[in-house]
Amino acid sequence: MKKEIYWLIGTVILVLALHLFHFGWAGFEPETQFDLRIFDTHLAMSSLYFLWPFAVACFFVVYLVKVIALGFSSGPANLILMITSIFLLLFTTRGGLIMGGVLEGDSLLNFASAMVLVQLVLLVLLAYTAFRTGNLKKYGW
């Protein structure tokens, strides 16, 4: 369990360092904004709104690599991977609803198909991780 705390702290430091590298010190202030261009749409949003989905994606990647390397044998790592998978499912669902008003025609169909595919992969990974976690005897789960 002590190693898992180090992994959590290390991942948080990684997220904060990458956010700092991308936005600078001003990126941690609520009034700092960045521009996002999606086709003809120009969105301006606070850089702190970007931090939460970015942190979840970083945690997902780090713990996916860790869980696969350990062969799904670490209960706490599996649990963190499942939690981040659920958050990514929520983000892709929400993102699909938001982009529904921006995209039209074939672009919307391609985007919706990609989101459904991502959600399907995340659900399969979530189910498999839950199955492997349920079979662990080491932690009594």
UniProtKB/TrEMBL annotation:
Sorted UniProt keywords: Membrane, Transmembrane, Transmembrane helix
Membrane-spanning segments: 7-28, 48-72, 79-102, 108-131
Protein name (Swiss-Prot/TrEMBL): Uncharacterized protein
Annotated organism of origin: Echinicola soli
